[in-house]
Amino acid sequence: MTRAYLGLGGNLGDPVKAMRQALHALDADDRTQVVSVTPVYRTPPWGLVEQPPFLNACAAVETRRTPEELLDLCLSIEASLHRDRAVRWGPRTVDLDILDFGGVALHTERLTLPHPRMADRAFVLVPLADLAPGLAVEGVGIAERLQTLDRSGIEPVVTAPDWWRSA
């Protein structure tokens, strides 16, 4: 089993419900188990800023899938939850990103690990620090990276333990 960290988010419809459904789908996979999930954070939009705020969280999973197989699983879950990829960094019902996969460095046409932009995104690193405070991104610890990023507007909104397991 390999420990992987995933970023989840959305800003259309009911993002908490969509993230909950995505986590249930991951956990139902016979080769993947959700180990822990962060609180949900409200975050300002990034990239394309003229859109509603996002809700974001991170999850740790244990998987027997390869990185590309996990990517395929995440993409199929996004599609089942009506993810529209028409606009880069645009509004979405749900987003699942592989942030780290057992510390593997990988660069293929479909997948780059660790996630190539996570070190610049407080909306990723704030919740990821809840799960893996000791994780290093490109040799620099998450806490140190967060010191250089603007965290304004990022606030927890769903903090109940195991919020994703409820109906």
What's the layout of helices and strands?
Elements: E1 2-10, H1 15-28, E2 32-37, E3 40-43, E4 54-63, H2 67-80, E5 95-101, E6 106-107, E7 112-113, H3 122-131, E8 136-137, E9 140-141, H4 142-146, E10 155-158
Antiparallel strand pairs: 1-4, 1-5, 2-4, 3-4, 3-10, 6-7, 8-9
Residue-averaged pLDDT = 92
Shape: globular
Helix content: 25-40%
- CA radius of gyration is 15 Å
Question: Which spans of ≥5 residues are poorly predicted at pLDDT below 50?
Answer: none
Beginning-to-end CA distance, first to last residue: 28 Å
Report the top-level CATH class: Alpha Beta
Query: What portion of residues belong to β-strands?
Result: 25-35%
Structural class of the helices, strands and pairings? Answer: alpha+beta
Instruction: Characterize the biggest β-sheet.
Output: 6 strands, antiparallel
At the fourth CATH level, what is the homologous superfamily? 7,8-Dihydro-6-hydroxymethylpterin-pyrophosphokinase HPPK
Query: How many E strands?
Result: 10
Contiguous helical run count: 4
CATH topology: Alpha-Beta Plaits
The H/E string reads EHEEEHEEEHEEHE
Q: Just name the CATH architecture.
A: 2-Layer Sandwich
Write down the domain tally: 1
Task: Please give a structural write-up.
- This protein has helices at residues 15-28, 67-80, 122-131, 142-146, and strands at residues 2-10, 32-37, 40-43, 54-63, 95-101, 106-107, 112-113, 136-137, 140-141, 155-158.
- Strands 1, 2, 3, 4, 5 and 10 form a six-stranded antiparallel β-sheet that branches.
- The protein is built from four helices and ten strands; from the N terminus they run E-H-E-E-E-H-E-E-E-H-E-E-H-E.
- It has a single domain (2-156), classed as Alpha-Beta Plaits (2-Layer Sandwich), CATH 3.30.70.
- The mean pLDDT is 92.
